[in-house]
Design a protein that fits this description.
Strand order of the largest sheet: 8-1-10-9
Helix content: 40-55%
Number of strands: 12
Order of helices and strands: HEHHHEEHHHEHEEEHHEHHEEHHHEEH
Distance between the termini: 68 Å
Largest sheet: 4 strands, antiparallel
Length: 438
């Protein structure tokens, strides 16, 4: 481990100064900016708008269907159609006859089942269910809604389907919210509509004003009656308030806003929410004073030199293996280090560290004898004997992994073919630019 040698490292002031000069980019302050901005937020445009009761009542009446369901009526009917065997006059006469029989007390359901030509309803005693205004043609609906009580009869009436005898079975009165019950909801919706309308007007005006004079936010604030606000200093990772929005951060550090000092294009922060920003304070990244980073540099030099000394020690040990004919077990025992054995290292043996794995799988396979190597493993150097390399066996690969590899190859081939097609098209296509049409 490199840490074993750090106590032996002496770091002079000259070493620290030289390292500081050569690596100054590693010790910069964080670049920060502060913004001034104007904000249009629909929720803040009409928070306390006074609305007259007459206006609210008009809104309620205009949308009454949302708040009150219409009166509904359950009805039954007997439909008599004009046929080749029964002309118009005969059909009307039969309808009048059935109406008289019903008034004399005969059962409506029985007569509907026997005489009605409405196949769907006659099996249910003529019942056609609950109806609302508009569900039926007016020549049927009007007499139905003229009936006063369940059990009353209307007809015969003629529609495009034939002649009907109608019975009222049930009346359901209108249901819903009264004006007083719906008032708060109507007021909230009215204010939202007004706020949205104002937002559209304000945002359009803001865009015009920003493009007319991108050097200042005062014309926007004065024209729209908005307050110019300011953020705290923040870096490229963001800050608080609007400075937490990624689009605002990107705009703040863009060339247009940061370098040219221009007002940003208006930025959408969400539904009916927009800002325009300018940089008013800029703290560029600068080298931190040497005295504030000296100890940090000292520790960094010690770590680097400790690792260099560890590598040197590892190479000395490997040389002893060659020169003295020691094996690793004897070398570890004599030198006081631990011997570890890994029997089946794969590319997924991540516990050994990515740097070690990458170096290991770049090594050539040993031929007749094992091969010795010094390799970095995290914060240490290892003396390693590579004993054997076992090639992968495609027959042992799971189907799921095969499918994944097959898909990767397919994507690769597809990309290759597409790139070839694009290159061919660029080489073979004739492009003519008609300047007078641009």
């Amino acid at each position: 481990p490199g840490t074993d040698f750090e106590d032996e490292v002496e770091v002079s002031e000259e070493d620290i100064e030289r390292f500081y000069e050569e690596n100054q980019s590693d010790y910069l302050t964080t670049e920060r900016v502060a913004l001034e901005y104007v904000e249009i937020d629909a929720e803040a445009l009409v928070p306390d708008t006074e609305v007259s009761e007459e206006e609210l009542r008009r809104q309620y009446d205009a949308a009454q269907a949302r708040y009150i369901s219409p009166e509904r009526r359950r009805a039954s009917h007997i439909l008599l159609e004009v046929t080749d065997e029964r002309d118009e006059e005969e059909t009307e006469a039969l309808a009048n006859e059935l109406k008289e029989r019903l008034e004399e007390g005969e059962d409506f359901a029985e007569l509907a089942e026997e005489y009605s030509d409405d196949v769907a309803s006659r099996r249910q005693g003529g019942e056609i269910g609950m109806l609302e205004p508009g569900d039926m043609v007016s020549s049927f609906e009007t007499p139905l809604y003229n009936l006063r009580a369940p059990g009353d009869l209307a007809g015969p009436v003629e529609t495009g389907y034939g002649w009907h005898i109608i019975r009222l079975d049930e009346i359901r009165e209108p249901e819903g919210m009264s004006f007083e019950e719906a008032r708060d909801e109507i007021l909230e919706e009215y204010r939202e509509e007004q706020a949205e309308r104002l937002f559209v007007e304000f945002s359009d005006r803001m865009i015009d004003l920003v493009y007319a004079d991108p050097t200042s936010l005062e014309p926007v604030a004065d024209d729209l009656g908005l307050e110019i606000r300011r953020t705290e200093l923040f870096d490229r990772s963001g800050g608080e308030g609007i400075a937490a929005d990624r689009e605002v951060i990107d705009a703040a550090f863009s060339d247009l806003v940061l370098l040219e000092g221009s007002t940003s294009d208006p930025i959408d922060l969400g539904r009916n929410h927009m800002v325009a920003v300018r940089v008013v304070e800029h703290e560029p990244a600068e080298p931190r004073p040497l005295e504030t980073v000296a100890e940090e540099i000292r520790e960094r030099i010690k770590r680097q030199r400790g690792m260099e000394m560890a590598e040197e020690r590892a190479r000395e040990l490997m040389a002893r293996v060659h020169d003295e004919g020691l094996d690793l077990e004897a070398l570890a025992e004599e030198s006081g280090y631990e011997l570890a054995t890994e029997d089946a290292v794969t590319r997924q043996s991540f516990q050994l560290g990515s740097d070690f794995l990458q170096g290991l799988f770049r090594l050539p396979a040993p031929e007749d004898e094992s091969t010795m190597h010094v390799m970095r493993k995290g914060g240490a150097w290892v003396v390693m004997s590579l004993e054997e390399v076992r090639p992968g066996d495609p027959l042992l690969v799971q189907d799921q992994l095969k499918d994944s590899i097959r898909q990767q190859l397919q994507f690769g081939y597809t990309g290759y073919e597409f790139a070839g097609l694009m290159e061919y098209l660029r080489d073979e296509s004739r492009i003519r630019i008609v300047e007078d049409r641009l």
